[in-house]
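Technical annex B. To support the medicinal chemistry partners, we prepared a structural model of the target in complex with 6-O-phosphono-beta-D-glucopyranose, based solely on the information shown next.
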Amino acid sequence: MVTAVAQRLAAQRREINDTLARLSLSSENLQQVKDKMRVELERGLRKDSHSTASVKMLPSFVYRTPNGTERGKYLALDLGGTNFRVLVVKIRSGIRKSVRMYNKIYAIPLEIMQGTGEELFDHIVQCISDFLDYMGMKNTRLPLGFTFSFPCRQTGIDKGSLVSWTKGFKATDCEGNDVVEMLREAIKRRNEFDLDIVAVVNDTVGTMMTCAYEDPKCEIGLIAGTGSNVCYMEEMRNIEMVEGDEGQMCVNTEWGGFGENDCIEDIRTRFDREVDEGSLNNGKQRFEKMTSGMYLGEIVRQILIDLTRRGLLFRVNTPQVYKNIKCVTPLSPPSDRLALLQVRAILQQLGLDSTCDDSIIVKEVCGTVSRRAAQLCGAGMAAIVDKIRENRGRNQMNITVGVDGTLYKLHPHFSRILKDTVKALAPQCDVEFVLSEDGSGKGAALITAVIDKYLYAMRLSDETLMDIMKRFRRELGNGLCSDTNPTATVKMLPTFVRSIPDGSEKGDFIALDLGGSAFRILRVKVSHEKKQTVQMESQIYDTPEDIIHGSGTRLFDHVAECLGDFMEKQNIKDKKLSVGFTFSFPCAQTKLNESYLLTWTKRFKASGVEGMDIVTLLNKAIKKRGVDIMAVVNDTVGTMMTCGFDDQRCEVGIIIGTGTNACYMEELRHIDLVEGDEGRMCINTEWGAFGDDGMLEDIRTEFDREIDRGSLNPGKQLFEKMVSGMYIGELVRLILVKMAKEGFLFEGRITPELLTKGKFETKHVSSIEKSKEGLTKAKDILGRLGMEPSADDCIAVQHICTIVSHRSANLIAATLGGILSRLKDNKGNPRLRTTVGIDGSLYKMHPYARRLHKTVRRLVPESDVRFLLSESGSSKGAAMVTAVAYRLLTRVV
Ligand code: BG6
Ligand code: BG6
Ligand code: GLC
Ligand code: GLC
C-alpha cells in the first residue's frame, strides 16, 4: 500500500519534472539563442534582409549619450510601461550639474488602451493639461520629450510611425501613423496650450540616456518589465537603413520580436503557444512573451492548469478554479519556508486551497519560468555585447547596461541569473548593470536637451526677461547720471528735441535718411490750410559697400552728389531749403545741428568720421549748395516725431530693423549732461550697446559670439547683434550649420553655399515662420542653397527660425519694458498710458509685432501701450524737428 502511494507520488513527480524540463534550457540551448540572436541583429541592420528580419533594429536618431553640458527645463511623457507618467525635468549643467524631476502618474483605462487612437491621444493630452495646471505652467511653451515604448520606424528624432502595438495596447487607427503628429493634432484639438515636441524615444533609449548621464560607459539600455527590449550604440557604417558612415547611432533592437520567423521553435513550449494564441498580437513578439512581466504569470497559469488537469495539482479544487489562476508572481525557490507560506496566501487570494505539496510545485513552476526568462535575456544580451566588442575590434571590453522595468527591479533572482548568463556566454566582456533610478523620462528629457542644446538658451522665461528688464533699467540710470555715464554701455544721448510736433510746424524741407536698409532723400512740404498736411516725395539711392567702407570724405561726397541729383530732379536747385538729416548712428549732440559720431554701427565703417561733427563733414561736401543743415536726428527720434504727428501721446520711438534702438522723452531734471531742470528732452538710448560690458553674458550663446567675431565691430553692440535684422538670418544659418555638422539636420550634409556667411537672410526667417506656406518656403530657400531638406528638416528649420525671432521679440520687449516702467515712475501714475512709435523691416515682418506686443503687456502689466507703426519713415519726423529748429532760428535772427 505504502509502496503503491510512494510509486504514484514518484510517477507524479516525474511527470512534473518532465513538464518543467521542457522549460529548462541547457548551456547549448542558450549558446544557440545567442548565436541566432546575433544572426537576427545582423539581418535587421542590413538593407536586403531588414524587411524580413524578426529583430527590427530600428534607428533612433540619437547619436550620442549625454555629456553633462545639457541644460534647460523640459516636459516628458512616459507611455507604454506599467505607468503613464507626465514629468517636468530641470537639468542644470556645469559644477551645479543636477537633474530635478516632478512627475504625476495617470491611469490609462483598458477601454482607452484598446479604444480609438483619437481617444487615446486626447486622453494623453488631457493628462498633460492636468499636469500643467497642477504645476502652474500652462503658459510656458516647453520642449517635450516623448518616451513611447512601442516599435516606431523613425525618420528623425521627432518623427516615428508606429510599426505595431505590443503589450496591452491596441488602439485603432494608429499603426502606420506618426505618433508625434497624432500627439500634435490632439494638442491642437484641445486648443489650450502649446508644446514643442522635440523628440520621440523608446523606453530602452530613454533608460540608456538616463544611466549614461551618470556613467559614460553606459551604451546599452535594457527593459525587463511589462515588455522586454534592448537598445545599444551601433556604428553608423553598420546601419544600412540610415545614410552616412560616420559615428554612431543608438539602435532600438525590438528584440521582443525575435522568433517571429520560427527560429526558436525548438525551445518554445506548448505553454508559450497557448499564451501567444490568447494574446492581443498572436504570432508576434514571441521572445517578449517568453521573457517579460506581462506574460510570465500567464505562462505559469497555463502550466498550472495543465498540471491540474492531469491530476498533479490542486486536487481539492473543482475545475472552475482554472480561470481563477490568473497571474502568479514568480517567487523564490522552494527552500525557503516563508516563501511557501506566501505561495499559499497568494493561491488563497485566488480562491485556491493548496496543500503543502501544491505550494512547492507552484513555486517550482514560477522559478523555472522566470529562470528561463532571465537566461533568455542573458543570451540575447551576450549577443549584443559581443557584437559591440567586435565592432570595436577588441579582445576584451568593459561596458555598462542601463536597466529598468518591474521584472528586473522586483524579482528576487532575475537580475542575478541574467548577469550569470551574460558572464558565461560573453566571457570577453565585463558587463556592469546599472539600475535606472529615475525612469526613462529623464533620458527623454536629456535627449531633448541634447537637441535643444543650441536652442534652449534662446528660450527666455518671463522670469529671465524680467531680470533683463531690471538690468536695462539700471543701465538707463547709469547712462543719465554724470558720474556713471562714462562707463555706461547704454549711452543715453541727449537729442535737443524737447517736444513732439504741436501742429504748428510748416515749411518746405529736404530730408536725408541714412543708416537704415535704404538711403533716401525726400522733400517734405508741411502746409497749414485749416489742417496741417504733409506732402512727401522721395528717392532711394544706392550706398555701395566700397563707399560705406571707404573714406569718410568719399561717403559724404556721395551723399552730396545724390542730394545734387535730387534737387535737380525736383527743380529746386536754386531754392534755399532747410535740411533735416536722419543719421542712424550714435552721435553726441551739443545742439540740434552739431553732432559728433561716436562710433559706426551696423554695416558702416567709413574712415575718418568717428569723433567728427557730421554736420561739418556734410557741409564741406555740399559746399553750400544753398541748403542749410538745420537738424540731425537719430532714426528713432525721427520715428517718434513722425508718429507724434498723428498721436500726441507718442513719447517713445523704436527701430527694429537693420539695427535696433530706442529713444524716449526723459525729464530734464534727470539728465545730468544737459543743463536745466524744466520740461523734457528726447534721449537716444543707443540700447544696441547694452551688454557690451558683459552684462548679458549669461544669455548669449555660442552663435551670438560667432556673429560678433565675424562682425565689423567685435565686442560692440552685443544686444543689437542678438536681436536685429542684420544678424537674425545669420544666427539661423549658424545654427543650421552646427546642427547639420552634428548630424541632427540634413543627414549631416552641408553645401558650400550654406557655409557662406550671409546666405541665409532675415527675410527668409520670417517667410519660413509662416505656418502654412513656411515649410514649402524652407524647402525653396534651402533648395536655392543646394540643399535637399527632408520634410523633417523643414519642420526643424521652421522651429529654429521661430525660436530665433521669438528671442529677438522677447529681448526687445524686456528693454522696452525698462523704458516704459521708467516713464511710469517719472510720471508717478499707477498706470501708464502711452504710445510707442515703431519702424524697421524686422518689426514689419510676419508674426514679430504680435509677439512683441504680447510680451510687453506681460512684462509691464500696469500699462496701456499703443504701438503705432510709422508709415512714412523717420523723415516726416525729421522735417518736424527741422521746422521747429528753423522757427527758433528765424525767431532769434
Ligand atoms: C519605467 C520607465 O521606469 O520603466 C518606462 O520610465 C519603462 O519608460 C518602464 O517603459 C518599463 O518597466 P515596466 O515594468 O513599467 O514595463
Ligand atoms: C525707415 C526709416 O523707415 O526705417 C529709417 O525711415 C530707419 O530712418 C529705418 O533707419 C530702419 O529700418 P531698416 O529695416 O531699414 O533698418
Ligand atoms: C515592447 C515594445 C518595446 C519596448 C518594450 C519595453 O517590447 O515593443 O518598444 O521597449 O516593450 O517596454
Ligand atoms: C544702430 C545705431 C542707432 C540706430 C539703430 C537703428 O543701433 O547705432 O543709432 O538708431 O541702429 O537704425
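Notes passed to the chemistry partners:
Residues 513, 515-517, 582, 584, 635, 638, 655, 657-658, 725, 839-841, 873-875 surround 6-O-phosphono-beta-D-glucopyranose (ligand 2) (CB under 6 Å).
The longest strand covers residues 519-529.
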